[in-house]
Specification:
It is built from 14 helices and 20 strands. The protein has 446 residues and is an alpha/beta fold. The chain binds inosinic acid. The site of inosinic acid has 21 residues, from helix 4.
Length: 446
């Protein structure tokens, strides 16, 4: 049995929720390892529609265990709200949802600082999700944060006092007047601690037990490679490593236990918030993609910026994530276009470059060099076999494989689980093992 990672290859919102949900029958547990409730994973499960932010999408499958790993930043109120939504929908979480005691707690103070900073940045705002993600990771890096396991501990007040000293000073510098109430926050933390009792543990040991027992783990990444704090379009990035190395550090499972990576690539590109986006379309085609692809942020409700597929970005993502096979999503959104473009290189300072530059000015200066494809102008929704795709759509997929140098193992042609092409390739077989047939059966049967 294999352990696989799901990684976004663009700026997030590649459709990870649906693919995780589809692949679950081949795995025993699903693990989140970075980020927090800035992520928004949309899953259609039967007739129901779920927007999950913190809890791994796979938990909708009754046989799956869900783990929120040590690399995450967790706002307890957001966690309880989501658990409540699942319970209201009849999804039982008892004995199958676990939160790492080493994970970092997002306090309302972090949220206040995130919002105050964004307001102060004005036009240069990053466009964060206002969930306190960045300030919480900063508290972790400065070794001041409260962790899930600290919430009920005797040293809590002293930790909060130190944290309030640092966050309070930053908030005051940004114009905040209110004092941070340490006693009230301590009382709140103790309440959270009691409510987290059925969920919190040192999940590293559970995961190692699973690996020893030969159970298969699916690591559910959030956001995308270009939002990675090291590899993304800095400073317009999130504050965690969103790439696959973080699956190990953010869960405590060794990199040697990971067998491969599903790279999620949308058939066009979107991004939310500020920052460079070489293939962005600010015209009618961009608006068409936004409408047809329903490109509105799950967490913030913001319209997403839309543009053509960029294989310079995809190649880079495939390399740094070690993508074994691509899941190409939302191909059907392109169905009605007369022409489709794909950037395969950039023109930069008079040169043609195929490798993604790492410099912030270069991202702004880079002019995409496009290859134009004829549209297929027929519906691909719900097509199950690769050979049944219209020839022009097959050409498009093959071109992606050639440019990125990674095979496309899945093609998503609609939001539902059954609207997916699963190709019988060595790479998909390797990652799904015997589960390949289970995934096929579940896709057909749902
Ligand atoms: P933060 O993660 O809230 O700090 O936001 C930093 C940047 O990451 C902003 O551009 C957000 O729009 C973006 N971002 C964070 N989470 C997601 C996501 O799940 N999908 C897409 N963009 C995201």
């Amino acid at each position: 049995m294999a352990n696989a990672v799901i990684a976004g290859m663009q700026w997030g919102d590649e459709g990870k929720g649906k693919i995780v949900d589809l692949l679950c029958p081949a795995f025993d547990a699903v693990v989140r390892f970075q980020g927090g409730h800035n992520a928004g994973h949309t899953v259609k499960f039967g007739d129901r529609h779920f927007s999950l932010r913190l809890i791994p999408s796979g938990l909708l499958h009754p046989a799956m265990t869900g783990v929120l790993g040590n690399g995450m930043v967790i706002a307890p109120d957001a966690f309880f709200e989501e658990v409540g939504e699942l319970h209201a929908a009849g999804v039982d979480t008892e004995g199958r949802l676990f939160v790492s005691s080493r994970a970092t707690v997002i306090l309302p103070w972090h949220v206040a600082l995130d919002q105050a900073r964004e307001a102060e940045r004005g036009d240069a705002a990053i466009g964060t999700t206002s969930r306190g993600i960045g300030p919480a990771y900063e508290s972790k890096a400065s070794r001041m944060s409260v962790r899930i396991g600290d919430l009920g501990q005797p040293g809590l007040e002293a930790r909060l006092e130190r944290l309030a000293g640092s966050l309070g000073a930053q908030l005051r510098a940004l114009g905040a007047r209110e004092e941070l109430d340490i006693a009230a926050m301590a009382a709140q933390c103790r309440e959270w601690d009691a409510a987290l009792e059925p969920y919190a543990e040192d999940t590293v040991h559970r995961l190692h037990r699973y690996v020893r027992e030969g159970r298969s783990l699916l690591f559910e990444g959030a956001q995308g490679a270009l939002l990675d704090v090291d590899h993304g379009t800095f400073p317009y990035v999130t504050s965690s490593n969103t790439t696959t190395g973080a699956a190990a550090t953010g869960s405590g499972v060794a990199p040697t236990a990971l067998d491969g990576v599903f790279g999620l690539l949308k058939a066009y590109t979107t991004r939310v918030g500020g920052g460079p986006f070489p293939t962005e379309l600010k015209d009618r085609t961009g608006e068409f993609l936004r409408q047809r692809g329903n490109e509105v942020g799950t967490v913030t409700g913001r319209p997403r910026r839309c543009g053509w597929l960029d294989t310079v970005v995809a190649r880079y993502s495939a390399q740094i994530n070690g993508v074994s096979t691509i899941a190409l999503t939302k191909l059907d959104v392109l169905d009605d276009l007369d022409e489709i473009q794909v950037a395969t290189a950039y023109r930069l300072r008079g040169e043609t470059v195929r490798e993604l530059p790492g410099d912030r000015q270069d991202w702004v200066d880079a002019e995409p060099i496009y290859r134009t494809f004829k549209g297929w102008k027929t519906s691909t929704v719900g097509i199950l076999g690769f050979e049944e795709l219209p020839p022009a759509a097959r050409d498009y997929v093959r071109r992606v494989e050639d440019e990125v140098e990674v095979p496309v193992g899945l093609v998503s042609t609609g939001p539902r689980r059954e609207e997916t092409i699963l190709r019988d390739l060595p790479e998909t077989r390797h990652l799904l093992g015997e589960g390949f047939t289970k995934v096929l059966a579940e896709r057909q049967g749902s």
